[in-house]
Amino acid sequence: MASIRKDNEKEKKLWIFALTIACCSLPSYGMPLDNPYCKRPTIDDSASLLGITPSDSQKLTYFLHGIKTMLHHEAPTMNQAMVDKILTTLKCANQYDVEHTPVLTVIDYSRPSSEKRLWIFDLKGKKLLFHTYVSHGIKSGILSSNYFSNQYNSKASSIGVYKTDKAYYGRHGLSMRLDGLEKGFNDNASNRAVVMHGGWYVDEKFVKKYGRAGRSWGCPAVPSELTKQIINTIKDNSLFVAYYPNENWFLKSKYLHCDNYSHLPQVAQLETNATEPLENRDEILFAEKNNNNKREENEPIVVMAADSYQRIFNTKVPLKRMLRRQINHTEYVALNNKEFKNIVADNPELLNSATKDGSNELCFVIPVIKKVRGYYATEMQIIPLGKIKEVVTSSTQKNQPNYTIHFQTNASIHLKTTNQFIRWLGL
Question: Which domain of life is it from (predicted)?
Answer without folding.
Answer: Bacteria
